[in-house]
Amino acid sequence: QVQPVESGGGLVQAGDSLRLSCLASERTFRSYAMGWFRQAPGKEREFVAAITWNIGNTIYADSVKARFIISRDNAKNTVYLQMNSLKPEDTAVYYCAERAGYTNTYGNPALYNSWGQGTQVTVSS
Fold this sequence. Notes:
It is globular and about 45 Å long. A hairpin with a 4-residue loop joins strand 7 and strand 8. By secondary structure, it is mainly beta. The protein contains no helices and eleven strands. Helix content is 0%, strand content 46%.
C-alpha cells in the first residue's frame, strides 16, 4: 500500500491501556522516521511521538511522556504506540505518518510525507 495503515483504536476507560499499530507503506527505500499525531474535535493536529527506523531514537510530547511508549519492529515494517494510564484528554483520532528523509525536527506535521487514515481513541471518565 502507498500509505501507512493504523489499527488498534477503541473505547476504553480512564486508567486503561491501549496499543496502536501502524503498518508502514510499501516503498523501495524505507522512510527515515515514523510519527504519531492526534487530533481532537475542534483542535489542531498535535505531535505525540516519533521514532527513527535505523537506531530507534524516540521523541515524545511532554503531555504523553512517561505514559506512552513508541517502538518499532523493522522485520514487520510496523510501529507501535503503547498508551498507558489513559486520560479523557487523550481522546482523539490518532494518525500515523512517515517522514521520508532525515530530519531533526519531529513535531511539525508539515514535515511528514505520507499519512494514514487515522484510528479513533476514546477514553471515558
